[in-house]
Structure formats: C-alpha cells, structure tokens
C-alpha cells in the first residue's frame, strides 16, 4: 500500500515538472508528423489502436534521442499524449472524477477544482494558452459552437449534461477563462440529501407533502449552493401519472420521472436572429398540456409568464432563483417583473406573487463546503401592501462539547396554512377512515 502511494506521488511530481512538459511537447510534434503520413487512416482508429501507436512511437522517440527516462516515466508521457490525441488532454481525468463538481481555469497554468463544495488549486496545467484553446475547441466542435475573436464568449451544454462557459481575448485579459460545471449522472434522491445532511426528517416530510399537494415552490440560493440538485430531488415526489415540462437556458435538470418534456432556450445567430428565450418557451409550454412546469432558473422577463402559469391552474410548478434570503427572493421577483414591463400597480403585482407562490426553500453552501437548507418559508398573503410570510423551519449550527460542528433545524411551532396541504390532509384522513383533524 505504501509503495503504491509513493509511486503515485512520484508520478504526480514528474507530471508537474517543466521537463515532462518539454519532452511531451517534443514527442507530440514527432507524433503529428507520423499522423500526417497516415492521413485519413488515423481518423478511423479506435482508442486502443491509438494507445498502441503512441506507446510504440514514444518508446522509439525516447530511445532515438537518448532521453534519460525510466519505463514508468515513458508510460506517463505516452498516456498523456493518448489523451491529447483521442481525448480531452489534461481535462480528461478531472471530467471522469465523480467527486469533481466544478473545474475553473484562469489561463493555462492556473486551474482550480471544487470537490464536495470546497475549491482548491489543482496541480495540473496546460503547455500554454494555445494548448488550452485546442482542448476547448475539441469539446465545442461536436456541439457546433464557434469560439474566436468575433465570438469570444460561449456557453454550451456538454453531452453528459454538464455546462461549459468560455471567455477568451479580447474580453479575457489573462488568457482563456474556462468554467465547467459537472452534474451527477445519477441525480441525488431526497434520501441522499438526508444522508448528506442537507435536510432532516421534518423538512423531508414537509417538502414531500408540499410537492404531492401541488404547492408551488421556489428554491432560492447563491451560486453553487445546490439549487439544481435540490430541484432534481424534489421531482422524485411528483406522481408518475403527471406530465412535467422543464424549461432551462442550458439543460441541466435530470428528473427521475417517466414523463418529462425537456425544453432549452436558444441564443440568436451572430446577426441576432433565431433566438428563443425562456419566456417564449414558457408561453409555448402552456399549449403542451403540462401538469407541472419546472423552470431551471428565473433570471429575466420570464418571471411574468411563470407567475401567470402558477396562478392559472398549473399548480405544483417549481423553479430556482438567485437570492440570499426569502425576503430578498421576493424583492428580486418584483424587480424582474418591473424590468419585464409589468403594467399593473405595485399592490397588484404583490398579490400575483402571493397568489402564485406557496413556499420558498432557501439553500446555501456553508464555509466548510456543505450544502444545507437554511429555511423553509410559507407565503401567507398580502397585508398592508407587503407580502406576508411565516418561517416554518430555520437552520442553526452548533458545536458539541467535543468541538464537532453539528446542524439542527429549529421549528417555530407554526403549522403551514396552505389550503393545498390542508386539502391533502383531509383526503389522507378520509382514505384512512379517520375523522378530519383540526389544526392546533
């Protein structure tokens, strides 16, 4: 076991040296000459065939140049070159690592990786900015997206469901800025979130009842707080006989449900034509007989269509929004509606918001990287021209006598007033043959 760890450390040390980069660059140039001689035949080779070709070529290159490398170092260079020719170079291992959530590249030699919510600097690097751009363009090529001086900013969905954002010169001053958000192939279930400590039994039960009772839920939180993962998890509570339409800028949701219609917006051409916005998709979704509409993120004029859908029979809809508190979330909705050209008065807008939303679930990423539901707040109506709310649960951190940090959710002792939940309780009681229970 110790020998294996020592070997891994030696491998990493060699790969991160300038000597490794120099030998790899020279061997790569030699390989390109051989590939040009092969012509179109090389393009038909499998990855295994490319690996064998690279192993033989690198071995011959090292021997011919009398480069002092041991067998393991030659293998490391050959493996790296195989990833260059048949894969995604230095990114390949990170993209294949299930623990990696975000890959953030600030120029060729400045790479950060987020694992379990904690951002750390990574030792891997690219040869130069051209090397980094070559790998990025290889990712973009099958997606039909262009990246050049006339189009220096690209946002794209990867085949595995992840998201890629790239900004290059002249907008990015210090080289290409690459941001890759990865998503789990198997979405987290509510029980998984419980195990991870994102919520406890009481919150689990409340959210399950709220989704099944067709309450409209808005998930609020900051960047990388776990909003999309929570939205995916809540979808597990949606009955299988319902039709769900998801609407996103970049399709990230992966709902474990038998009847999902996935819609994705489209940016316009370079001339600005052909754009299809989230607002357009919400309008169109109303003609698709949805039982529920799920909006990946509300960030613009589509907020009006979402509120109207929630107010006109599409109960059980859900969405996420960027905000730090439930009250700030409501202010943001008002602001977005104003920007969208809402024609009514402030009081009528607030009545629409209060009528549309049932619950705001606030989620956050703590300093230790853990994601936690910070509060569940019920929208209760409008009073004195202010949207009234009541907080049902609030997250608190505390330290045990041993110094261990723990989580708890404090109930404020208030039962939800939502008529949808009360109706569901009555139906459940009737099904059990028990008389209806009074609140309090």
Automatic annotation (TrEMBL):
<dbReference type="InterPro" id="IPR001482">
    <property type="entry name" value="T2SS/T4SS_dom"/>
</dbReference>
<feature type="region of interest" description="Disordered">
    <location>
        <begin position="398"/>
        <end position="440"/>
    </location>
</feature>
<comment type="similarity">
    <text>Belongs to the GSP E family.</text>
</comment>
<feature type="compositionally biased region" description="Basic and acidic residues">
    <location>
        <begin position="398"/>
        <end position="409"/>
    </location>
</feature>
<dbReference type="InterPro" id="IPR027417">
    <property type="entry name" value="P-loop_NTPase"/>
</dbReference>
<dbReference type="InterPro" id="IPR050921">
    <property type="entry name" value="T4SS_GSP_E_ATPase"/>
</dbReference>
<feature type="domain" description="Bacterial type II secretion system protein E">
    <location>
        <begin position="85"/>
        <end position="366"/>
    </location>
</feature>
<dbReference type="Pfam" id="PF00437">
    <property type="entry name" value="T2SSE"/>
</dbReference>
<protein>
    <submittedName>
        <fullName>CpaF family protein</fullName>
    </submittedName>
</protein>
């Amino acid at each position: 076991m110790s020998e294996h760890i020592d070997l891994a450390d030696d491998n990493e040390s060699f790969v991160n040296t300038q000597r490794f980069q120099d030998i790899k660059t020279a061997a790569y140039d030699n390989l390109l000459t051989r590939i040009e001689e092969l012509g179109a035949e090389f393009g038909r080779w499998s990855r295994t065939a490319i690996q064998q070709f690279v192993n033989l070529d690198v071995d011959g290159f090292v021997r011919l140049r009398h480069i002092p490398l041991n067998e393991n170092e030659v293998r490391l260079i050959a493996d790296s070159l195989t990833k260059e020719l048949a894969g995604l170079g230095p990114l390949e291992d990170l993209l294949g690592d299930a623990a990696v959530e975000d890959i953030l590249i600030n120029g060729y030699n400045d790479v950060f990786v987020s694992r379990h919510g904690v951002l750390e600097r990574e030792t891997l690097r690219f040869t130069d900015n051209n090397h980094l751009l070559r790998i990025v363009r290889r990712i973009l090529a099958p997606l039909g997206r262009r990246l050049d001086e006339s189009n220096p900013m690209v946002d794209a969905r990867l085949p595995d469901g992840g998201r890629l954002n790239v900004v290059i010169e002249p907008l990015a001053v210090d080289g290409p800025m690459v941001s890759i958000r990865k998503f789990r192939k198997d979405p987290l279930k509510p029980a998984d979130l419980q195990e991870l400590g994102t919520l406890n039994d009481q919150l689990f039960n409340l959210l399950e009842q709220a989704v099944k009772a067709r309450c409209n839920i808005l998930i609020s939180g900051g960047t990388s707080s776990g909003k999309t993962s929570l939205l995916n998890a809540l979808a597990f509570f949606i009955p299988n006989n319902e039709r769900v339409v998801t609407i996103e800028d970049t399709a990230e949701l992966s709902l474990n449900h038998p009847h999902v219609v996935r819609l994705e917006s489209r940016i316009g051409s370079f001339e600005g034509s052909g754009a299809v916005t989230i607002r357009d998709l919400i309008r169109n979704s109303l003609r698709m007989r949805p039982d529920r509409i799920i909006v990946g993120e509300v960030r613009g004029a589509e907020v009006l269509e979402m509120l109207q859908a929630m107010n006109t029979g599409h109960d059980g809809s859900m969405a996420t929004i960027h905000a730090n508190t439930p009250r700030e979330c409501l202010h943001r909705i008002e602001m977005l509606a104003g920007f969208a050209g809402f024609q009514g008065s402030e009081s009528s807008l607030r009545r629409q918001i209060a009528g549309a939303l049932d619950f705001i679930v606030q989620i956050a990423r703590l300093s230790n990287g853990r994601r936690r539901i910070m509060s569940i707040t019920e929208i209760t109506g409008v009073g004195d021209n202010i949207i009234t709310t009541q907080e049902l649960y609030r997250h608190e951190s505390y330290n045990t006598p041993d110094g261990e940090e723990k989580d708890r959710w404090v109930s404020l002792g208030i039962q939800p007033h939502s008529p949808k939940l009360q109706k569901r309780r009555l139906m459940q009681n009737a099904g059990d043959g028990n008389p209806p229970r009074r609140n309090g």
